[in-house]
Design brief:
This protein is α+β, with helices and mostly antiparallel strands and 295 residues long. The protein is built from six helices and twelve strands. The chain has a domain of 197 residues: Extracellular Endonuclease, Chain A (3-Layer(aba) Sandwich), CATH 3.40.570.10. The strands form four sheets. Strands 1-2-3-6-11-12 form a six-stranded antiparallel beta sheet, sandwiched between helices. The protein has a two-stranded antiparallel sheet with strand order 4-5. A two-stranded antiparallel sheet has the order 7-8. The protein starts with 34 loop residues before the first helix and ends in a 10-residue tail after the last helix. Keywords: Endonuclease, Hydrolase, Metal-binding, Nuclease, Signal.
Length: 295
C-alpha cells in the first residue's frame, strides 16, 4: 500500500543540551527548562528524516515546489512560490534541550537557491498572522546557532494567532513533557490549502502574493523510549499523534479535539508519511486516532 521514497541518511552531532519556545510572541513555558537537569544520558541527536521523506523532496532547484532543505536542526520540503515549507521534519530528545534563550532573530534564509525570493520578517508585518514556526524555538536551544535556525523565515507559515499561541503551543509543550519523561520523538509538521483567518480577517496571501496563507495546519508525532535503530523500533503499539487544524482564530484551546489519522493527512496532502517504517506497522498506526493524554 505504501510508496517507497528515498530516505535521507546523515548523522547529526551527539551531545549538546537544548530547550525554549514554540512560535511568534509565545514565551517559553517553564516546564521544559527542567530538561537541563533531567536529561537522559542515553538520549542522542538523531537523523531528522529517519522515518522517511514524505514527498520525495529533492535538493534540485528545478523542483521549486518540493525543494529539499537539510539543516542540522531540521529537514524540510520548501515551496518557492508559496514562500513556505510544505513540511518540516525533526527529531526531539533531551539531547536537543538546553538553556539557550529564545533569540527572536527572524531572518531570511539565504541558503535558498540564487534568484529565489527570500521571505523576510516584514513580509508578515500588519497581516494579522503570526510568523508561525514549524520546528519550534523551544525544541532547539542547545546553542545560539540551533535556536537561530528556527527563526529562519523558511521555517515559518502565516498562522492565525490563536491557532499558534494557544492550541499549537499546548501541543508543543506537551511534546516536551514526553521528552522529559525519557522519550524521543519524531515530528513532522506541515500545512496545505490557500486562505486562513487571522486577527485582521480572511486572507489568501501576504507580501504582494509572495507568501501563501494555508487553510490547514497538521502535525504527526511518533513517540518512543530513547534508544537506537529508531525506524525499526516503531511497532503497532507505538503511540502516534496526528492532528489537523483549521488556520483560524476560533480554535478550541485543547489540541486533542483535532486528532485525526495519519492516513487522513496523507489523503489530504498526497504525502507518504513514516515511509521508512515497515508497511505492516504503518497500516496499523496510520489508521488509528490517538486517545492518549493531552497534558
Amino acid at each position: 500500500m505504501k510508496r517507497t521514497f528515498s530516505r535521507l541518511a546523515g548523522l547529526l552531532l551527539l551531545g549538546s543540551l537544548a530547550v525554549s519556545c514554540s512560535k511568534d510572541s509565545v514565551a517559553p513555558a517553564a516546564g521544559p527548562s527542567a530538561a537541563v537537569q533531567t536529561a537522559d544520558a542515553t538520549a542522542t541527536r538523531d537523523n531528522n528524516l529517519a522515518l522517511g521523506n514524505p514527498s520525495g523532496a529533492v535538493a534540485d532547484p528545478s523542483y521549486y515546489w518540493n525543494y529539499l532543505v537539510t539543516k542540522s536542526q531540521y529537514t524540510m520540503s520548501y515551496h518557492r512560490d508559496r514562500g513556505t515549507p510544505n513540511w518540516v521534519s525533526w527529531h526531539l530528545s533531551s539531547a536537543w534541550l538546553g538553556s539557550t534563550p529564545r533569540q527572536d532573530n527572524f531572518a531570511p534564509d539565504n541558503s535558498l537557491p540564487a534568484g529565489w525570493y527570500r521571505v523576510t520578517s516584514t513580509s508578515y508585518t500588519g497581516s494579522g498572522f503570526d510568523r508561525g514556526h514549524n520546528c519550534p524555538s523551544a525544541d532547539r536551544t542547545g546553542s545560539v546557532a540551533d535556536n537561530s535556525a528556527t527563526f529562519l523565515m523558511s521555517n515559518m507559515i502565516p498562522q492565525a494567532p490563536q491557532n499558534n499561541q494557544r492550541t499549537w503551543a499546548g501541543l508543543e509543550n506537551y511534546c516536551r513533557t514526553l521528552v522529559n519523561a525519557g522519550n524521543e520523538l519524531y515530528i513532522i509538521c506541515g500545512s496545505y490549502g490557500k486562505g486562513g483567518t487571522g486577527s485582521n480577517g480572511y486572507a489568501t496571501t501576504l507580501d504582494a502574493g509572495r507568501v501563501t496563507v494555508p487553510t490547514r495546519v497538521w502535525k504527526v508525532v511518533v513517540v518512543m523510549p530513547n534508544g537506537t535503530g529508531d525506524a525499526t523500533r516503531v511497532t503497532t503499539g507505538t503511540r502516534v499523534i496526528a492532528i489537523n487544524t483549521p488556520n483560524d482564530n476560533s480554535l478550541d484551546t485543547n489540541w486533542g479535539v483535532y486528532r485525526t489519522t495519519v492516513d487522513a493527512i496523507e489523503q489530504a496532502t498526497g504525502y507518504d508519511l513514516l515511509s521508512a517504517v515497515s508497511a505492516s506497522v504503518q497500516s496499523v498506526v496510520e489508521a488509528r486516532v490517538d486517545n492518549g493524554p493531552t497534558s
